Amino acid sequence: MFMITRWDGVYLTDNDDIILRVPFADAIESLNSIDNGEIVPEEYVAKRFAEEKGYKLFVTEKRLEEFGNVTTLPETGIADFPEIPRDFLMEIYSTKLDDSRTVDNTIMQAVRSMDTLDDAINVMSERLREWTVIYTSDVLKLSSDSIVKKVIRDIEKWNIPTEEANHLMEMADNLKRLSSLRKKMETFIERAMHKNFANLCAVAGSSIGARLISLSGGMESLCKHSSSTVQLLGAEKAFFLYLKEGKKAPKHGIIFQHPLINKSPYWIRGKVARLLASKISIAARIDYYNGEFIGDELIEAVKTRTDELIRKYPNPPLKKNRNSDKKIDRHKDIRKKNKKSTRKNKYKNKYDY
Asked: Rounded to 10 degrees, what is the CA torsion of 139, 144, 146, 147?
């Protein structure tokens, strides 16, 4: 006897006949549980019925192997089942969309939109700089915001043809609007982080916290990461170069932007990054599971431990002795000479008559 789960319930079939149908109490909730790899209560009811009747049970899904004493077979040519109604499909899709409309997804999209705005602003400001430098060299060392202000303020003094001046003014206005939009996006992210992820915001800051969520792929993924993974988020390229080519191992990723790390002496930054990453992991899990606010205690513990590390390691570690390095190099040269002489003797003996 086959157990087959469909959109409206669980079926027991024997060849072409349906022996039993156990309808779902809540079809959408049951299908979501099945989508997560769980066994629903209706499937236990069908299994119990098969056992009472003494049937050998065959299943078509690997997740049902947890029952034990069942055989998994492919589903081919087994009874006809009712088609899924269009209204039911639309309800499932709307439920999935509602699940995706979470705060962390909103923050992820805002962070990525801000990155796109940064790219657009950088490209357009560089183009505006290269265009205006034809008429004045004062813009060479200016930032993008300063270039825009200078173009709007001084363009009439440069004796530029009217049509060309109009294009430059339009570019400057667009850059100004993009910069304004970026500031609004940054404010939105900061407010969303403070409102929904207060602990993470207190420990990592709103900007770093939002980027960690974006790099992880969501708050749930960030909670599942170990603190060592959180420490290196954003340094994936450097980490794979370390694994593949033996380059120097990275000590921190995006969390390097935190003032406790980038303002610490370089020789203890790795220790501070490891400490901060562990507290970020704790803060993220508390926020995700709606725990109490302890962000101030967490960041205070990081600051206290950082001060202890600065007092414990006031000076950078001693560098390697140059003489020992030369000694190692000399041994390498000796090994190379021995290898060459061995190769010469090999060929000499081969052709020695």
From this structure: 40
Token readout for 21 is 């149908």
- In sequence order, which ranges of the chain are alpha helices (DSSP H)? 27-35, 41-53, 86-100, 103-132, 144-154, 162-196, 198-204, 206-216, 219-224, 227-232, 236-245, 259-262, 269-288, 295-312, 322-350
pLDDT along the chain (353 residues), means of 10: 78 78 80 79 85 81 78 58 60 55 87 94 92 87 87 86 91 93 94 93 95 93 93 92 88 94 93 96 92 93 95 85 48 50 50 42
Distance, in Å, from the CA atom of 203 to the CA atom of 300, rounded to the nearest integer, reads: 9
CB 272 within 8 A of CB 264: yes
State how many domains the chain has: 3
Domain harbouring 121, CATH code = 1.10.287.4070
Range of the domain at 260: 197-312
**Entry pTM:** 0.65
DSSP 72: E
Q: Are 271 and 246 in contact (CB under 8 A)?
A: no
Residue 340 in domain: no
Q: What is the CATH number of the domain that holds 298?
A: 1.10.246.90
CA 293 to chain centre: 25
Contact 288, 209 (CB under 8 A): no
Do 36 and 26 reside in the same domain of the chain? yes
Amino acid, res. 53: K
Q: What was the pLDDT predicted at 262?
A: 93
| Residues whose CB is less than 8 angstroms from the CB of residue 212 and which lie 6 or more positions away in sequence, other chains included | 200, 204, 222, 230, 233, 254, 255, 280, 284
Taking a C-beta distance cutoff of 8 angstroms, is the pair 212, 233 a contact? yes
CA distance 337 to 333: 6
Radius of gyration of the chain (CA): 33
